[in-house]
Specification:
The complex is a heterotrimer of chains A (295), B (324) and C (321). Chain A has 295 residues and is an all-alpha fold. Chain A contains 11 helices and 2 strands. In chain A, 46% of the residues are buried. Chain B is mainly alpha-helical and 324 residues long. Chain B has a domain of 182 residues: MetI-like fold, CATH 1.10.3720.10. In chain B, 77% of the residues lie in helices and 2% in strands. Classes of the chains: A mainly alpha (295), B mainly alpha (324), C alpha/beta (321).
């Protein structure tokens, strides 16, 4: 087999993706954001959770102020005297971890159930899809609210709530695609070979569901980040000890009316840029990966 | 038609029942309300009195039976915090939420349909493209952040609109409504816009897609061949066709809008059910949480049912099928 | 006497991203009052676009690129959209191919008819409704008063086409363009509709352009026939002339492929090859790649030659029969 034949689908995908400057820009922005979040410890001038480094006298300083210790608060400080820039980097880390983590989790659960429904059909299908319908008929915020009301606040519970909110979307989409694939000859051939069903499901059905799955997952990451921020803003999300962007915005909200906008504003911008960059990538991925929509 | 309606009603009742189990069992797992309600200094006798008063010493199934019985009698317990029947508490806050949600939905049609119509008629123009780009933002921006920005711009910086609260209210049917006074309307403008932003994007995209699809239809060409004015073709022949899916979606979105009012109400300190539920979750006021969730479920299922019926009334094609 | 409609050197081009499609390329014909012109051709030959060009309903990226359309001496290619609209549905009407698609599914029949009346004459709603009812009765729809309140989906395909015809004839137009109005219908209903339209147009002296791909439909109906191929009229003449003595090889092939004209047991003759893409049309005769008579000369533009009085063909090698 030649190298070209092996590489070409992926290469074609890359070149098609790179064809859209907006999507490429989104990807670059998102990569920078992700790196900044991962290396927050090294990039941030301050560890906002090390109380020894905080000086309450520096509280609510506007952007560009000098700290008592001599360095500049690029984006000002919050009411605890935390450097907003550092706080944002750490908040970004939590937002991304929760968003990406829950999206991956939900993808696993939803994909498995969707494949099961498509593969076994009949009663399995009916039960799973009925639950999916019920779940999707309620708005995400309500389901998340219910779960957090029941389980209380913690990072894990937020992740769990997001997984429960999101899995149904994956399940429905995967089932739809798998139902089509299942009828193809190669699955029938695999079934004729008496391959075990797990092998057919994950070895044959799943790879064909992957491209649309990636598209859904990208969009779900953005959704999850937004929903997490909303929940945290409402005080139902992550605990105060590990503030995400949403909680930072909530903390600054009370000061906004008195004109100290930066405590809420900059985390909000970070949240916005993150979500929009992911959506731009997702939108274009959908165009590239979905041959049905391609023209 | 009648059996169809009956079946739908039966389904709806079943979902409500299922939700009572989920909500009740779920909510019961939250910490122990005893710990919150009773001060740590209270003696054993006081503890026992409160526990008995709220029925917390009963086995779970018995509590559920009591709860279900209460639900049938419209009694979902008393708020631990307000010491008021939970249902009445929520009922008192409902008008504020409802008027906000309904206004938001009306705004989504008022803005979404004209914008979508324009974008559908001129899809390649600069304005048409800008409208579509804007709708992407409307979909992806978190509601609470947009709300904050609205406050920052219109309340803090420009000082045009009040930032929080419901303002003056007028009375209608024995309830207080903000839309009856100028001050109330000024207070409602930002929250309603904030709440409707997502729906505006949704309606706009639906309208645009519908317009583009309908314009290609033979009956539009035939309508033009009849010598009708462009306005008549667009506003009667095109719009009437796309109003059916739009009405359905908007109707269904009313439920989500009421649910998402939670966020907007928190941002703008709008005294509705949503703000109440957030406060109640924070203090684990169980009866109120349960009552709210049940209320929302019932509202939701009712809306779905009504929209389904409305749909059959609106679309002559569906109407015939269900009659037959 | 001048013709009701005279089309001269009509060109309608579609400017697509892939290039210019000359859907109608130098088409000329004329129809007199009370006369029926059969416009015949395969799908993609430009016959429907010709119809839409006359009524002024060419959508972008298409547009008139030249020629004139004289309706009673007035050039429709030059008048304003407003003037055109007052003619459309009034003096010049059109009926479409698929009756299932021509009526708006969410509007009642009376709405769709009354608006047509009121678009052109200033009458009360009741008066417009009465006219609509009479028109429905005229095209043979039983109990028209009740049927006015129905929705299109409550009619069968044939009935819907009758409704469409009733709408088109509401103002007794001078010209009716029928774009394959019977193609989507059953054979028996086809015949009824055909007879109905013929009768009604004859009564009012309406000039009729009947667009079809089916020569057998046109045979008993048309006074004159124009055969189109790849955006051009390749042959035109009296119906009997063209059908009995076709001159252009394409017309020859077309007639040969009609089953009723062959003898039993004889194989149906086919025209070899496919309709060329209008996008990459080489100069010269567009039919030459499928034509048994083609020579090198056909790479040039064939002239319009008159083989007998009133019978013309665009060919270097007219077939004599």
């Amino acid at each position: 087999m030649s190298d070209i034949a092996e590489e070409s689908p992926f290469r074609r995908f890359l070149s098609e993706f790179a064809a859209s400057k907006i999507a490429l820009g989104g990807l670059i922005v998102f990569t920078i954001i992700a790196l900044a979040a991962i290396f927050a410890n090294w990039i941030g001038p301050q560890n906002p959770y090390d109380l020894a480094q905080l000086d309450i006298m520096d509280g609510r300083l506007p952007p560009g102020s000098k700290s008592g210790a001599g360095y500049t608060y690029l984006l000002g400080t919050d009411d605890q005297g935390r450097d907003m820039f550092s706080g944002m980097l750490f908040g970004l880390r939590i937002s991304l971890a929760v968003g990406v983590g829950s999206a991956i989790f939900a993808a696993c659960v939803g994909t498995t159930l969707g494949l099961l429904a498509a593969f076994f059909g009949r009663r399995t299908d009916a039960i799973i899809m009925r639950v999916v319908d019920l779940q999707l008929s309620f708005p995400s915020i309500l389901v998340a609210l219910m779960i957090l009301a029941v389980l209380g606040k913690s990072v894990m519970n937020v992740v769990l709530a997001l997984v429960i909110v999101d899995w149904a979307g994956y399940a429905r989409n995967v089932r739809g695609i798998a139902m089509v694939e299942r009828k193809r000859e190669y699955i029938e051939a695999a079934a004729c070979l008496a391959l075990p069903w797990r092998r057919i499901m994950f070895g044959h059905l799943l790879p064909n569901c992957l491209p649309p799955l990636i598209v859904i997952a990208t969009q779900q990451v953005a959704r999850a980040i937004a929903l997490e921020a909303t929940l945290s803003f409402l005080g139902l999300g992550v605990p105060i000890t590990s503030p995400s962007l949403g909680l930072l915005i909530a903390n600054g909200y009370q000061y906004m009316l008195s004109g100290k906008y930066w405590i809420s504003f900059y985390p909000g911008i970070a949240l916005l840029v993150t979500i929009v960059s992911i959506n731009l990538v997702g939108d274009h991925l959908r165009d590239v990966l979905n041959p049905r929509l391609k023209r | 038609m009648f059996t169809w309606l009956l079946r739908r009603l039966f389904q709806a009742c079943f979902v409500v029942l299922a939700m009572t189990v989920i909500v009740f069992v779920g909510v019961h797992v939250i910490g122990n309300p005893v710990d919150i309600l009773i001060s740590p200094e209270a003696d054993q006798a006081e503890r026992a009195r409160v526990i008995a008063a709220f029925g917390l010493d009963q086995p779970l199934w018995k509590q559920y039976a009591l709860f279900l019985n209460g639900l049938l009698h419209g009694d979902l317990g008393r708020s631990f915090v307000f010491n008021e029947p939970a249902l009445r508490l929520i009922g008192g806050r409902m008008p504020a939420t409802l008027e906000l949600a309904v206004t938001a939905v009306l705004m989504s049609v008022g803005f979404g349909v004209p914008l979508g119509l324009y974008a559908g008629l001129k899809p390649n123009g600069f304005i048409g493209r800008s409208i579509m780009a804007g709708s992407i933002l409307g979909f992806s921006l978190p509601t609470f952040w947009v709300g904050l920005m609205l406050i920052m711009v219109f309340a803090v910086t420009l000082g045009w609109l009040p930032s929080t609260g419901r303002g003056e209210t007028g009375e209608l049917f024995g309830l207080r409504w903000s839309f009856l006074t100028w001050d109330g309307l000024r207070h409602m403008a930002m929250p309603a816009l904030n709440l409707s932003l997502y729906n505006i994007s949704l309606v706009l995209r639906l309208t645009r897609a519908g317009v583009r699809e309908t314009l290609l239809m033979d009956y539009i060409k035939f309508a033009r061949a009849k010598g009708l004015s462009p306005a008549r073709v667009i506003f009667v022949h095109v719009l009437k066709n796309i109003m059916i899916p739009i009405t359905t979606v908007v109707g269904l979105e009313l439920g989500s809008t009421i649910a998402f009012a939670v966020v907007t109400e928190s941002v703008f300190a709008w005294p509705g059910m949503g703000k109440l539920i957030i406060d109640s979750i924070n203090v684990l006021d169980r009866p109120v949480i349960v009552a709210y969730l049940m209320m929302i479920v019932v509202i939701f299922i009712t809306i779905n049912l009504v929209v389904d019926i409305l749909y059959t009334v609106l679309d002559p094609r569906v109407r015939l099928e269900t009659k037959a | 006497m001048s013709a009701t409609l005279e089309v001269r050197n009509l060109r309608t081009h579609f400017h697509t991203r892939a290039g210019v499609v000359k859907a109608v390329d130098d088409v000329s014909f004329s129809v007199d009052a009370g006369q029926v012109l059969g416009l015949v051709g395969e799908s993609g030959s430009g016959k429907s676009v010709t119809g839409f060009s006359i009524i002024g309903l060419i959508d972008p990226p298409g547009r008139l690129a030249g020629g004139s359309i004289f309706y009673r001496g007035q050039d429709l290619a030059k008048i304003s959209e407003r003037e055109m609209r007052s003619l459309r549905g009034n003096r010049i009407a059109m009926i479409f191919q698929d009756p299932m698609m021509t009526l708006n599914p969410v509007l009642r029949i009376d709405t769709q008819m009354i608006e047509t009346v009121q678009a052109h004459v200033n009458v009360s709603k009741a008066e417009a409704r009465a006219r609509a009812r009479d028109a429905l009765g005229m095209v043979g729809i039983p109990s028209p008063e009740e049927r006015l309140n129905a929705y299109p989906h409550q009619f069968s395909g044939g009935m819907r086409q009758r409704v469409a015809i009733a709408i088109a004839l509401l103002h007794n137009p001078d010209l009716l363009i029928a774009d394959e109005p019977t193609t989507a219908l059953d054979m028996t209903i086809q015949a009824q509709i055909l007879a109905e339209v013929q009768k009604l147009t004859a009564e009012h002296g309406t000039a009729l352009i009947w667009i079809t791909h089916d020569l057998s439909v046109i045979a008993g109906l048309a006074d004159r026939i124009a055969v189109m191929y790849a955006g051009r009229v390749v042959e035109t003449g009296e119906a009997a002339d063209v059908l009995d003595h076709p001159v252009h090889p394409y017309t020859h092939g077309l007639i040969g492929s009609v089953p009723s004209r062959n003898h039993r047991g004889e194989r149906l003759r086919q025209i070899p090859g496919m309709t060329p893409s209008l996008l990459s049309l080489a100069p010269g005769c567009a039919f030459r790649s499928r034509c048994a008579h083609a020579t090198d000369a056909c790479a040039q533009e064939p002239p319009v030659t008159e083989t007998s009085p009133g019978h013309t063909a665009r060919c270097f090698h007219p077939v004599s029969s």
